[in-house]
Amino acid sequence: MNTYQTETTQANAFLAQQGTSWNAINPEHIARMRLQNRFKTGLDIAKYTAKIMRNDMDAYDKNPANYTQSLGCWHGFIGQQKMIAVKKHFGNTQGRYLYLSGWMVAAMRSELGPLPDQSMHEKTSVPALIEELYTFLKQADSRELNHLFRDLDNARQGGDQVKEKAAQKRIDEFQTHVVPIIADIDAGFGNEEATYLLAKKMIEAGACCIQIENQVSDAKQCGHQDGKVTVPHEDFLAKINAVRYAFLELGVEQGIIVARTDSLGAGLTQKIPVSQTPGDLAEQYNQFIEGEAVTDMSQLNSGDLVLRQGELLIKPTRLANGLVKFKANTGEDRVVLDCITSLQHGADLLWIETEKPHIEQIAGMVKKIREVIPNAKLVYNNSPSFNWTLNFRQQVFDSWQQAGQDVSEYDRNNLMSQQYDDSKLAQQADQQIQNFQREAAAQAGIFHHLITLPTYHTAALSTDNLAKAYFGEQGMLAYVENVQRQEIRQSLACVKHQDMSGSNIGDDHKEYFSGQQALKAGGLNNTMNQFS
What we know:
- By secondary structure, this protein is an alpha/beta fold.
- It folds into 3 domains: 1-16 and 25-38, no CATH class; 40-273 and 332-452, Phosphoenolpyruvate-binding domains (TIM Barrel, Alpha-Beta Barrel); 462-530, no CATH class.
- The chain is built from 18 helices and 14 strands.
- The protein has helices at 4-16, 27-36, 42-62, 76-90, 102-108, 125-157, 161-172, 192-205, 233-249, 281-286, 331-344, 359-370, 388-402, 424-443, 454-470, 476-489, 497-500, 503-514; strands at 68-72, 96-100, 181-184, 209-213, 229-230, 256-261, 268-269, 291-293, 307-309, 312-316, 324-325, 349-352, 378-381, 446-451.
- The strands form 3 sheets. Strands 1-2-3-4-6-12-13-14 form an 8-stranded parallel β-barrel, surrounded by 8 helices. Strands 5-7-11 form a 3-stranded mixed β-sheet, with no helix packed on it.
- The two termini are 31 Å apart.
- GO terms for molecular function: isocitrate lyase activity; metal ion binding.
- Keywords: Lyase, Magnesium, Metal-binding.
- InterPro entries: ICL/PEPM, Isocitrate_lyase, Pyrv/PenolPyrv_kinase-like_dom, Pyrv_kinase-like_dom_sf.
- It holds the Pfam family ICL.
- It catalyses: D-threo-isocitrate = glyoxylate + succinate.
């Protein structure tokens, strides 16, 4: 990124070549607008953020303490406020990303209205949200730089060269709010060509990382629902190839693919793949299929299938809709095979969808994967679908019981009860929840921790609290005490909502364009001045 002085010098040299007709154009204003719009296209963003993510992956390989995190955001404003908060509280955005959840796109961004997570929403709504998120992040850049430019102008007007140099230094060292987005493409929204076309749109919007799952596209279910159906490896690998080709076609060579397996909770397959050679992926996949041993043709009815598994002939167990069942208790083995196969065929990271947040369970699968792929790394869903409180209290209960510790004062099935909130068991469970990401990164190969839909829940909770108080006895005090006063005391930039929406940026632009005759909104009578 060019420095302020370099941009100004370059703009000045260009204007000097244009003759007198461009005399109204100020080179310093050009420099400011260019710095406020560092990323001209979504592909610029994808290339920039892919490099960040690759460097973070390398850093994690050296030390698992370098794991990364994100929160799912369903609107550009939510993503913007998240990154403004990260910069405010931590000084930089290192290791912090955004997550784009297909669940939240379905539930909150579909033109068809709120939908379940079953790939029924418009596929174009996914790249549209990516573009929206980056539009808001770039606007956060513009706003913060606008404040720095005003600091520079004030220092100059006051003749304070020390403050002027300090302001220019802050401008030159400015860190963008633009960070990697891990974007959910579900199961690809169709065949491999459909996956390729959608992946291109997502990358052009700015996505450097695309997550794709091995469910059947037209029967996709949320990873935490029943009825999940997976596809054979060959079908899934074709979609991984489609995403890779999309990255390469658009010049994003460092683009990242996250291969998600839902096999742990999926008991059904769409179809029986055809084995071409002994021991190939199709034969390995078919070994997991449940069926009845066939010893006599009289066991077969019209339309029944017969499958050879080693030396056995079996009649696969099929549902009325034709889907085929897997053998019970094969989920973890199928997950391991899925993960190894995906990494061996072009994926960069793994996602194992689990039914609970249990480090030992995840680590057990990762250990088997790393016997083949030593640097295998996971993206892990710290899902709101888990009852974290109950799960971890039960984990502590079980570990105490196995160690011979007295647990007679606790009811394992009722550990969610408030009566246990101050107990030693609850305190240990909370400590384990607090340490979960760090411990899972160290023990279970998790490079990136995300919460898929936290801002869905925070919006619901905060709205419920405000509505209860505002429409009750507190009236206006509910907003003032619980919202505005907290914004002021916690120094939330959003308390000046006019500035956050771009009012000051617009004023400066008007002055660039119209000079002294500009009609600006930020004068003395702007009520935003009450929050200075």
